[in-house]
Amino acid sequence: MRRGPSDIVCELMVIGAGMAGVAAALFAAKRGIDCVLVGVKQGLNFASGMMDLMAVHPIEEGRLWMNPWQAIEALVQDCPRHPYALLNPREMRTAIFDFLSFLKQGELPYHAEPERNVMVLTSLGTLKPTYAIPRTVLSGVRALQEKAACLIVDFDGLKGFSGRQIVETLKNTWPHLHSHRVELPDPYSKRVGLQAKRVEQYPEMMARGLENPEVRTHLARAIRPLLKKADYVGLPAILGVQHTEEVFHALQDQLERPLFEIPIMPPSVAGLRLSNLFGATLPRLGVRAFFQHPVLKADHNVRNGFQFEVGQGPAQMVVRAKAAVLAGGRFLGGGLYADRERVVEPLFGLPVYQLSDRNRWHRRLYLDPQGHPINQFGLETDGLFRPLNADGGPAFPLLFAAGSILAHQDWMRMKCGSGLAITTAYAAVKAFEQLR
Amino acid sequence: MKTQVLIIGGGITGAGLARDLALRGIESILVEKQDINAGASGGNHGLLHSGARYVESDPATARECREEGELLKRLAPHCIEDTGGFFVAVKGDDENFIADFPKLCAKSGIRAEGVDLNLSLHLEPALGDQVIAAYAVPDATIDPFKLSLDNISHAQQLGTRLMRFTRVVSFSVQHGKIVWVGLTNTETGQEIRIEADLIVNASGAWAGQVTALVGIKIDMLYSKGSMLVTQKRLTHRVINRLRRATDGDILVPGGIVSVLGTTSVRVESPDTIYPELDEIDRIIEEGSRMIPELKTTQYVRAYCGVRPLIRAKDAENDRDISRGFALIDHAPQGIGNFITITGGKLTTYRLMAEKAADLVCERLGVRQSCRTRTEPLPSAENNQWTRPGQAPRAWIERNRPEDLLICECEMVPQSVIDSIASSIRDQQGAVTLKAIGLRSRVGRGSCQGMFCSLLIAAYLYDCREFSDAQGLLNLREFLGERWRGLRPVLWDLPLVKSELQEAMHCGLFGLELIQSRDRGNHQ
Question: Does the beta-carbon distance from A332 to B499 stay under 8 Å?
């Protein structure tokens, strides 16, 4: 241990700043548990903003369920090792309700119908099933249901978002969909006499630009003549970062049409909004959050509990905790790591459920509906979400795991990512509360 | 449709032959069942052999390689990086082989100079401390895509007609002659007939399948070779292992990357081949004997190709079979106007084309001598984009901020996509992501096309190249193709990236559900 790092003592250490990590910290704080969160915020920045609960089962059939709870029931029956099988549906509902309420209080309101998934139009022109959606996306779901007359607006200089692509892809089922390209008004460059034609636009900068009422008015003016018979207006997800509610309502009022955002390629502002919200709110709830700080080393002894070295490059501090939640995600988040031989859990060296032959990690077809076996590798736990050791017992009495690091799920194909993160985080925190 | 010569196969042999014939004033149609260089011409190291690799096993090929290599360096310098090469031996390698090597090279007229070990380490710091001998030879690297595209462009200028995605399905034979050839457009299903005075089968590994259509059997072997592309270039020169040819003994620089190879695995058919994980692991182990860094370096993808080999009775294994080419006149087998040219190497493609064209001329009674031996290969404007750094250079020179970079890893702007799209239209067939990938650096950078393919698809919709859901199906196909090369290298960082990509393609966009959506059970 290098000289100088400061020591922090807490009850519960949450490792990971993706959806599962912030959910665990939130639930812990709500229960008055003294909590430290460390991790790299990247996880949330890459979030799509859609909160999936459960939509596709069995994945090899691509069977779509419009009722997520029935889908979970069927899943648990067919795949009893899925983490959802360890949860009780009442608590799952509570976890999701609490999480969405928190977002609402944070001025990032979500919409969810209790018993029903929705289909969301994406920038690719695909329809993606999900459960809870940002308020800003809702009118798109309705427009799609009604196949209403709808205008998609795209922008000069914004790559990867083509209104024509959406219209062409859906034209057989949605004939009243049209698109039009506009130039994002830039009052600043006009004022200083620059020509701001068709230079590259970045979603985040556009979103921040629209927080300026003057830019909004310019945009509304550009769109209004294109509305014609359109009953809805769809835009790429650029309606503000910090003040999305305000941007959304103001622009909607100016256009006098229901307005909606279309999810785009990550990293998008949808993830940034979540990331900002948790970055600002968790500390206010008493969570000591250290974003951009990965855990470098973990130790445990019976007397003092867990000890973590944390920092970028050299260790900058030591966190001592009675308990910990592993919520570092999979390979991208660093919760798991693979070399040419095997998949490991790098902090504690916990056993990882896996197939030993690398040839069986991935299928030959990328978009194989069965999914890649490696996506089901991960930590196996007991009923209290404690990762197991080689003997099948809990590796440590107070070490928990939550989110996509858990084995026997394929969140990308089952469409259960956020649901898995939130509900297992809830269960892990609750289990700690029982055991402490 | 009528022509003098119908050439079957749009690899480097067919492309070279089309140009050679066109330069002799002979009219031809070149048909290819997929796209340019879809077979071995696109699935190789990109090594312009000095010939040194074959001095022991196949001196005739060694000499051909030397002569042709020297010619191409003069006539097609824009396709070549004259890197030079080393042959290095490591501890435990056969001492007799090492001792004989310079003598054998001299016999084939190949310059091989012994390099002091300290100097070799200084010139190529990536060489390991296991190296016990090093020789410098005139190896170089060549861009096989640019080479084929330039040959075809020149032939087209001279009147050759190119038909991509056109597969030969039948031959109509009367009185010992093929009177017409039946073909199908694999994209539209349209059927056509071509009448030609002479038909040349230059379909490489598929040569036997083509001749089988007229009941002629060529005893071919399919030897798959797999290669690995590193994230960064590890050496300045081509590095060869100084021993009898085996797995993992060549590391070839390719612009900003290095390519490690290769293997030799007998396969049943040249269709649907994959670089397999055990091959990849093997060449890493072997390659790291020369270049230890190969054990830890990042790989971006793998790929493979099939060598078309003509079976020889006495060869003990596939590596012993001559890499020389076979020019077969099918007249003795009862078809008077049918020729097959197969086997051979990328380095000797021009010679193969010359010999085939000589036979064509003899048959057609044309007295024109070969001009590819002296005439430089012109570099075509639209074919320059496979070269690393070319797209960003052009972009910076033009300095138009509205020309957005659409592949950020390799800095390919929209204007380059336009240029490539126009060249694809010149060569007939649809503008697809795969066709663009073949003609540019798109998808070869660190994202391997997983992000930029989405940007390009959107751009192609804007340009009205795509309509309906065609772009999405195209995207699925492109991603599937890239996956073949990614799958074997998915550990460490590439695995991290692939997780992000799958989270986007499947988790967010539900691309895997497109086909099954209609079967969905809406409860």
Answer: yes
Residue B360 pLDDT > 90, yes or no? Answer: yes
**For testing contact with chain A, the best of B281, B508, B512 (most A CBs within 10 A):** B508
Q: Which domains does chain A have, with CATH numbers?
A: 6-107+272-435 (3.50.50.60), 123-263 (3.40.50.1860)
Q: Hey, are the CB atoms on B402 and A48 less than 8 Å from each other?
A: no
How far, in Å, CA of A3 to CA of A5, rounded?
6
Query: Between chains, do B517 and A127 touch, taking CB under 8 Å as contact?
Result: yes
pLDDT tens over chain A, length 436 residues? 444 557 899 999 999 999 999 999 999 999 999 999 998 767 788 899 999 999 999 999 999 999 999 999 999 999 999 999 999 999 999 999 999 999 999 999 999 999 999 999 999 999 999 999 999 999 999 999 999 999 999 999 999 999 999 999 999 999 999 999 998 766 555 544 444 555 888 999 999 999 999 999 999 999 999 999 999 999 999 999 999 999 999 999 999 999 999 999 988 999 999 999 999 999 999 999 998 888 999 999 888 899 999 988 787 899 999 999 999 999 999 999 999 999 999 999 999 999 999 999 999 999 999 999 999 999 999 999 999 999 999 999 999 999 999 999 999 999 999 999 999 999 999 999 999 8
Whether the bond between B59 and the residue before it is cis, its omega within 30 degrees of 0, is no
State the smallest CA–CA distance between residue A358 and chain B in angstroms: 8
Chain B residue numbers touching A358 (CB-CB < 8 A): 277, 491
Chain A: closest CA distance from residue B477 (Å): 10
pTM of the shown model: 0.93
Contact B471 A157 (CB under 8 A): no
A58 alpha carbon, distance to own chain's centre: 23
Determine the straight-line distance between the first and last CA of chain B, rounded to whole angstroms: 56
Contact A17, A415 (CB under 8 A): no
CA distance A5 to chain B (A): 30
Contacts of B401 in chain A (CB under 8 A): 198-200
The answer to whether residues B421 and B436 touch, using CB atoms and an 8 Å cutoff, is yes
**B480 near A CB under 8 A:** yes
| CB-based contact A127:A144 (threshold 8 Å) | yes
Q: Which of B324, B283, B330 is nearest to B302 (CA)?
A: B283
CATH architecture of B79-141+221-298: 2-Layer Sandwich (3.30)
Contacts of A197 in chain B (CB under 8 A): 402
Contact by Cβ (8 Å): A58, A369: no
- Cβ contact (<8 Å) for A364 and B496? no
Q: How far apart are CA A411 and CA A383, in angstroms?
A: 20
- Residue A342, chain B, CB below 8 Å: the answer is no
Q: Is B428 left (phi over 0), alpha (psi -120 to 50) or beta?
A: left
Kindly report, residue by residue over B69-111, the tens digit of the pLDDT: 999 999 999 999 999 999 999 999 999 999 999 999 999 999 9
* A124 interaction partners in chain B (CB closer than 8 Å): 454, 457, 472, 475, 509, 511
> Given an 8 Å threshold on Cβ–Cβ distance, is B487 in contact with A364?
yes
- Chain B residues closer than 8 Å to A339 by CB: 491-492
Contact A201, A157 (CB under 8 A): yes
Question: Is A195 an interface residue toward B (CB < 8 Å)?
Answer: no
Q: Could you tell me the residue ranges of all domains in chain B?
A: 2-40+145-219+323-364, 79-141+221-298, 381-519
Q: Which CATH architecture fits B2-40+145-219+323-364?
A: 3-Layer(bba) Sandwich (3.50)
- What is the predicted pLDDT for the residue at B33? 95
Q: CB of B468 within 8 Å of any CB in chain A?
A: yes
**CA gyration radius, chain A:** 23
